[in-house]
Amino acid sequence: MQHIQDNEFDQLFRDKFEEAEIKPSAHLWDHIETQLAVKPRRVFPVYWMAAAVAVAGLSAALLFKTAGAKRQLSDGIAVAQVSPSAAVARQAKPAASAEPVPRLAASPKVIAPGIQIEDSPAVDEPKKDLAALQPIALNARHDTKEIAVSQEKLPLPVSAEPIVLASNDVKPGPGDEVINENDNRAENKGIRNMGDLINYVVDKVDKSDEKIIQFKTDDDNSSLIALNIGIIRFNSKRHKQSEKD
Amino acid sequence: MKLTPSNTINDLLEGCKAGDRKMQELLYRQTSSKLLAVCMRYARDRMEAEDVLQLGYIRIFQKIKEYRGDGSFEGWMRKVMVNCAIESYRRNLRTLNIVPIEEGYEQPSEGFDFSRLGMQDLLALIQKLADGYRIVFNMYIIEGYSHKEIAATLGISEGASKSQLSRARAILKEEIIKMEGINYATHTG
């Protein structure tokens, strides 16, 4: 055996197996028949799903990117928007409480720069005054005697006061609108971010009530609220509505 | 693989292409013994071989429309079966335990020399080979693939295919000598 040539050796195996037959187990055909009876799975949904996942992933990536950029912008804007309104709240209090002396003495240093930026007409805002009433009472208690000492400085802040009230009146408007944008109104706001763009395109293509994909959009961010692809289907808006019902 | 006159290979082919279950069963009855012998060479045991046979027939029935008549139908079926066996080997590659051939052979053949070794003896030896050796040996020696084709199919280098083949040969020779020795001892002692 050690000296047998490879060719010879190979040929011996070939000869032995050429006509080899081994009878399979009796039940084997039944298994095959059962499997043949099962209809092959549809291939289409698999590709469809893969495509949907790819699209969803891509749009998510784009949204994160745009959201990041928006956030940077909005951070800057937020400072401008918030500081005046806070200042207004504080400034508005004295007007309502009719005790300008203690308030002004406590806050003028902080408020003055924020106020001067906003040049707007002076209008009284009763709603804001109501909100401001409670903190003032507290402040009034704490301030007490020190306030009396600083009364002489009154004239300077007084001139700034009406300007502050005016900015209060103007600024709250857009602030309230932002909150309302969570509703369908966003669709009418034009295209400001990726979510708007996708909503717009989908709206043109898909006329049905249940859109393939729908985003909630606002100035700061966009988030997916409805998805309707084959078996994947969710609609946060609908859930909310049904809860209300 | 003998066909009765009333069911020629063409009848079976046309029937199977049309999805006729009776014809499919007839084809299975007439060819499965031979194809199981092919699967047995690639598998480690009968159970694994029958699994491959099952998959192979389903594949044959699914793809039978693609058979254009170039080359024998039996050759085509055998090729489908071998491909299934290789796929199964590759699928199980990570989970298989390679048993060293040195662990001993417990089933001595009744024959004394090589010419007296039966197909079952040789099959048992082949099945004892490590998976890689067994697949390359079968593909090259019995099926007649080239080292280039084997390398491409298994995703190994041609050199690896050659070295696995010569190692498989060496192991098989060794094992046959061992069997002869045992038989010689049994006969003389």
What does this structure look like?
- The complex is a heterodimer of chains A (245) and B (189).
- Chain A has 245 residues and is mostly helical.
- In chain A, a hairpin with a 2-residue loop joins strand 2 and strand 3.
- The N and C termini of chain A lie far apart (89 Å).
- Chain A has ten helices and three strands, in the order H-H-H-H-H-H-H-H-H-E-E-E-H.
- Chain A has helices spanning 6-18, 28-37, 44-97, 100-106, 108-117, 126-149, 155-170, 172-180, 194-205, 236-244; strands at residues 213-217, 222-229, 232-235.
- Among the domains of chain A are: 76-176, no CATH class; 190-245, no CATH class.
- Helix content of chain A is 67%, strand content 7%.
- Chain B is mainly alpha-helical and 189 residues long.
- Chain B has eight helices and no strands.
- In chain B, helix 1 (9-17) crosses helix 2 (21-42) and helix 3 (46-63) crosses helix 4.
- The A-B interface holds A 1-2, 4, 6, 9-10, 12-14, 16-17, 19-25, 28-29, 31-33, 35-36, 40 and B 21, 24-25, 28-29, 32-34, 36-37, 40-41, 50, 53-54, 57-58, 61-62, 114, 117-119, 122-123, 141-142, 169, 172-173, 176-177, 180.
